[in-house]
Request: fold
Amino acid sequence: MAQSNFDRRRINGPEESYQPIFEPDEEVDSRWKPGTPRKGRGARDIRPIFLQAGLVNQANGSAYIETEKTKIACAVYGPRQSKTTVYNEKGRLNVEVKFAPFSCTRRRVPIRDAEDRSVAVQIQQALTSAVRLELLPKSTIDIFVTIIENDGIEGCIAAGSVAASVALADAGIEMLGLVASCSAAVVGEEIWMDPTEQEGHIASGSLVYAGMPALGTITNLWQSGSMTPEQAIQCMEACQECCADIHAVMAQALLETAQNT
Amino acid sequence: MAAQLVSKSERAYIQASLQATPPLRGDGRGLLDFRTVLLETGVAPLANGSAKLNIGKMPHEGGGGTEVLAATKLEVEDVESGDGIDGGRVVCSVSCSPSAYPHLTSNALDELQHDLTVILQQTIGHPSLHPQNLTIIPRKKSWLLNLDAVILADAGNAVDALFMAARAALWDTKVPRTRAVEYQAPEDSRTTRDSASAMDVDNREAIPAASGFDTREMVRTAADFELPDYWDEGEVLHGRERWPVCVTLNLLPPSHFLDATPSEEASVPLRMHLMFSFASPSAPKLQSMRLLGPGELDSAQIKSYISEGEKYARELFNALETKLREEDVRRNVKARDRFAQR
Reply:
């Protein structure tokens, strides 16, 4: 009987496993040199988005978003009664994020860990100002985001915010506007929108932006890495333009769901 | 960050006085005035670098203020078999003393600790700030720099205090000098090697015709390292001019203010943390930016906050630099003089 890795609560796989041998990939990724243009898309192009609402029947509202390799499902339960006895005059927004164990290159533990919480805090920051919580006293809205495949943490945060916003709209919760979100990275001297994980590693700095294009306001701004303030402002403006396009995609997805039901 | 409970009327009162002309704050400061900042380096003798920082200590009342203690400790990591990365790595952690936040449950305290750790780690652990001298033996052994900060008391503006203390501790950090050595088993006997019998290049006699001056051979086969001088504290950590300073702008559109007290933080929950690095004074770099709290802004406001934040950060940076150099002088030159005159 195996001693240390025997987890009684789960079905364990075989003790030893080997990767199947595939044909090696054609693109052997040599070191990226500054000045090399982006592979596969333009510098300011975001990955194409597939967005559909109404995926999970059990939940009040749900959405599924897929952008090339990032796949996220989101379910909203609420507004339902707060479990706490403390009186809240405004409703509470509770966001829980979970990375599936197979979502990243290295397996993630099934228990909630530190990175889950930081993504959840960002999504909550993006959505809190948009939802009309003052109409829902003593209530909680639970948003559960499951990341099925992760290609770039900034992309996950952005896609998660978009999915959560569509799910909230699908649940019929009143909001001031739809929240659109996207990310940008400074690579060399250029600004690349919507970086993948590999592009995130070669970037010197990255930025995640969330806002309501309908009102022209910003709800979440997260920047990390070395960039000049002017570059940060350029990233922000580029994100703002992309968010207007993402907003159109979100509205279209909601319209289709409403027409089909 | 952990807002103390404040009633609606108190919140309205504080907001109204901040937006009045002229703006009024509880302790009579201006909107952009910081409280007194006290800094001392070298407070933890067992650590490789340490600093204690206090914002807003009131000398007449004998205490108070936000107090943060930061210390760095270097550990050796194995690159091949352990967690090490070639080039070393930097790991930050923040712990909040329960006495600083008596009104929080342990879960809430854990979450606060985690949020502060994430802010510190994402900014300081970013590859663009990585110091170059954390390698011991290339591809074999490297240093792990642990930066641990403890919040001993919180009277508002804990994030600024954290970053200032972290910068001071990193400034104060000395990396021990190491020298690579190679083991060579003696050819005639089977005695087991022990660590004290490491032999230098010059002592080897059984090598086939390789020049003793060829030190490239040494680097390739170096298996371990030693400290040439046990009592030498080492060289300073590289890249010390790049470590960022943080300035927190508490936002109450159309105005903003710095260095909030706990009741002001609770009344104005929307804030922006800006971390600037002044490695070259003419071209400051924005290392990190966080918008926290319920509220929306438009892009013109954000641009003005970034440019104002840069000015405040520059003043903070200059003041911190002056103080750190003073501390260096106090601990080294003046201490030697005092010892010589004893």
In short: The first helix of chain A runs from residue 114 to 128. The helical segments of chain A are 114-128, 153-170, 197-202, 229-260. Chain A has a mean pLDDT of 87. The CA atoms of residues 21 and 28 of chain A lie 16 Å apart.
